[in-house]
Design goal:
The protein is of the alpha/beta class and about 170 residues long. Helices cover about 40% and strands about 20% of the residues. The protein has a five-stranded parallel β-sheet, with helices on both faces. Strands 1-2 form a two-stranded antiparallel sheet. Helix 4 packs parallel to helix 5 and helix 5 runs parallel beside helix 6. The mean pLDDT is about 90.
């Protein structure tokens, strides 16, 4: 690196202690210009809201997502109204929501989120014990829907697809 700096190929500055320092954007541009792999950027913090009236499901998903190597910032809600309130303050990138809940169900939550420009981009994974409700949730704007009992491999697969959309 010192040779690249001395040759003027890699912009750098010296600290008072005579050490070279390179700005991250200059280093990334240098790597790109020379066909080198990109410098690993810190992973984006992904905020995820889990809304389900069954505490066992919420606990299962929180435990499952907490064990993932990727760090998610998690929040939970126990009904559709609480989910909408938490969306406003927490601003999740992904919402995992039960379709059938007392009060405001997952379909209505989905419709409300997709109707507003500031929440339209939230990726939604519906979960339900009633497979006949899946078409209604997808029509309301959910990105994917899985039946209960949950297969955690399927949950992981759907979340990976949604994360790819979030990070694009």
């Amino acid at each position: 690196m010192r040779r690249w700096i001395e040759a003027g190929q890699l912009p750098a500055f010296k600290t008072p202690g005579k050490h070279h320092r390179i700005r991250l954007k200059d280093f990334q541009r240098f790597l790109d210009d020379h066909g080198m792999p990109p410098y690993p950027a810190p992973p984006l913090e992904v905020r995820m809201l889990i809304a389900d009236d069954e505490q066992d499901i919420v606990d299962l998903l929180v435990e499952f997502l907490s064990a993932e190597p990727r760090q998610f910032k998690l929040e939970t809600a126990t009904d559709g109204y609480e989910a909408l309130v938490k969306v406003g303050g927490f601003k999740p990138a992904i919402l995992i929501i039960d379709v059938v809940m007392p009060g405001l169900d997952g379909v209505k939550v989905c419709q409300r989120l997709k109707a507003h420009p500031e929440t339209r981009t939230i990726k939604i994974l519906g979960i339900t014990g009633y497979p006949d409700t899946i078409p209604a949730l997808l029509e309301a704007g959910a990105d994917a829907c899985l039946p209960k009992p949950l297969d955690l491999r399927q949950v992981k697969q759907e979340l990976e697809s949604l994360l790819a959309l979030v990070e694009a």
